[in-house]
């Protein structure tokens, strides 16, 4: 009871200048994310594949943690929200020693871990910053949530941070929104703003190190989408490549959906590029690949493995170019990849990941995708914070999260650590080749191509923006 009174008093103290007065503010319209997709609701049949974990104790805490969840669970981009919720569900299930239970739908759903009930109030953001702000305001003022989890859109996440979470003093676990600026700029980072999910800087810093240290490429041309995602990819690749002695022979930002690639790709060739980087989502990447595959260029394309939907589109383009079936021999020497990946189901060999993959496939009919390790870890970290603090209060959970090394994650034991200077979790990243989808995964991965087994791993202490770097403008 005291928990609810504390929340009400906090909200009342905000008065006319609080979050309720800002619910209609506009700050740029819909947010932007990392790529887009459509998907149908997967089967949520329960299983016992997560039984046998050592979790289930609440560490002396009891009661309810009420979490407001902000994810897109309808519309063209619903697959993002599904990944986020299914990953979060799997993290709670692992800690409880059971099977994933949460469905990607609005409403209230509860998962119990020991003596603590995690009550998730799920709201559909529809990938809109305006809607996310309004829903977050409602969750804090009317639902009295202890903390928030979301968003998928970086624009929506930024809006919720600035107009709701910071003003109300409510802890917010961002995910899977990936813009590096969320945890690197003073306007958005904060004592109660956390992110377990990997970000665009981690993509680029990992990929840049691989290009510089493991390939023969000595000159690179950088391309990126002209918004936060693409700029973060390009800027971080540029910083790492320059530091490693690789020459940047040009860079260009283009609008999402840009299709006039022949001239730009020729510009990169004329500039002497031995490699190009494409910081794009599914809105632009197919056009780039089509032009590249139809031309004759001697350089290699680098970048990041995205979600199933992007791999479906790119895989189809490769099938059209190379013929069916795709084989490793056809893909070798094509000049496509290897690519970095934040997470895919086959990149980590450990007991936690094995349980995660099996339980996720049985519950949702899909293999865990790009965003799922980060949101699994977000849930795992929240439960660990409750256990370590012995409290279900949002402020106490936030206090325990600061500097935490998360014990149970798909990348292994103790594989994510929240950095004290910006509350961004660092974790290892991998690099993989493009290979045809293996028969064993064809029913749960709907793309013709998939990541290979890892060809390189970048250690956690090398993946994030350092505290003293020019691009780090957050100091908590």
UniProtKB/TrEMBL annotation:
<dbReference type="InterPro" id="IPR028081">
    <property type="entry name" value="Leu-bd"/>
</dbReference>
<dbReference type="Pfam" id="PF13458">
    <property type="entry name" value="Peripla_BP_6"/>
</dbReference>
<protein>
    <submittedName>
        <fullName>Amino acid/amide ABC transporter substrate-binding protein, HAAT family</fullName>
    </submittedName>
</protein>
<feature type="region of interest" description="Disordered">
    <location>
        <begin position="25"/>
        <end position="61"/>
    </location>
</feature>
<feature type="domain" description="Leucine-binding protein">
    <location>
        <begin position="64"/>
        <end position="435"/>
    </location>
</feature>
<dbReference type="InterPro" id="IPR051010">
    <property type="entry name" value="BCAA_transport"/>
</dbReference>
<feature type="compositionally biased region" description="Low complexity">
    <location>
        <begin position="35"/>
        <end position="44"/>
    </location>
</feature>
<dbReference type="InterPro" id="IPR028082">
    <property type="entry name" value="Peripla_BP_I"/>
</dbReference>
<feature type="compositionally biased region" description="Gly residues">
    <location>
        <begin position="25"/>
        <end position="34"/>
    </location>
</feature>
<keyword id="KW-0732">Signal</keyword>
């Amino acid at each position: 009871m005291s928990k609810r009174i504390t929340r009400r008093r906090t909200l009342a103290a905000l008065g006319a200048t609080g979050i309720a007065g800002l619910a209609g503010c506009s700050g740029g319209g819909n947010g932007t994310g990392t790529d887009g997709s459509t998907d149908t609701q997967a089967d949520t049949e329960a299983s016992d594949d997560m039984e046998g974990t050592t979790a289930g104790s609440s560490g002396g805490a009891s009661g309810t943690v009420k979490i407001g969840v902000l994810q897109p669970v309808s519309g063209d981009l619903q697959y993002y929200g599904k990944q986020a919720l299914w990953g979060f569900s799997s993290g709670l299930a692992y800690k409880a020693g059971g099977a994933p239970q949460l469905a990607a739908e609005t409403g209230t759903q509860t998962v119990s871990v020991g003596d603590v009930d995690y009550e998730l109030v799920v709201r559909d953001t529809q990938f809109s910053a305006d809607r996310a702000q309004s829903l977050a305001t409602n969750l804090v003022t009317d639902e009295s949530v202890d903390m928030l989890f979301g968003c998928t859109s970086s624009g929506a996440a930024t809006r919720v941070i600035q107009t709701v979470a910071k003003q109300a003093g409510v802890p917010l676990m961002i995910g899977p929104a990936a813009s590096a600026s969320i945890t690197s700029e003073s306007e958005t980072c904060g004592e109660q703003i956390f992110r377990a999910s990997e970000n665009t800087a981690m993509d680029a810093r990992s990929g840049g190190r691989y290009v510089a240290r493991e390939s023969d490429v000595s000159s690179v041309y950088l391309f990126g989408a002209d918004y936060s995602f693409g700029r973060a990819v390009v800027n971080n690749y540029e910083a790492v490549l320059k530091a490693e002695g690789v020459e940047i022979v040009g860079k260009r930002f283009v609008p999402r959906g840009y299709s006039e690639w022949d001239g730009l790709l020729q510009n990169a060739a004329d500039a002497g590029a031995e490699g190009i980087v494409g910081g794009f989502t599914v809105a632009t990447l197919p056009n780039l690949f089509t032009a590249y595959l139809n031309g004759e260029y001697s350089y290699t394309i680098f970048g990041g493995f995205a979600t199933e939907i992007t791999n479906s589109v790119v895989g189809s383009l490769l099938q059209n170019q190379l013929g069916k079936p795709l084989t490793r021999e056809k893909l070798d020497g094509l000049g496509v990849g290897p690519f970095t990946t934040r997470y895919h189901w086959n990149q980590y060999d450990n007991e936690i990941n094995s349980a995660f993959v099996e339980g996720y496939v049985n519950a949702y009919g899909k293999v865990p995708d790009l965003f799922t390790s980060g949101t699994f870890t977000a849930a795992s970290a929240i439960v660990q914070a409750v256990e370590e603090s012995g409290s279900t209060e949002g402020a106490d959970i936030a206090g325990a999260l600061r500097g935490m090394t998360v014990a149970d994650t798909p990348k292994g034991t103790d594989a994510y650590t929240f950095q004290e200077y910006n509350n961004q979790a660092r974790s290892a990243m991998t690099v993989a080749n493009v290979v045809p989808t293996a028969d064993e995964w064809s029913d749960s991965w709907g793309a013709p191509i998939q990541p290979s087994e890892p060809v390189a791993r970048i250690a956690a202490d090398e993946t994030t923006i350092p505290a003293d770097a020019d691009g780090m403008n957050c100091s908590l």
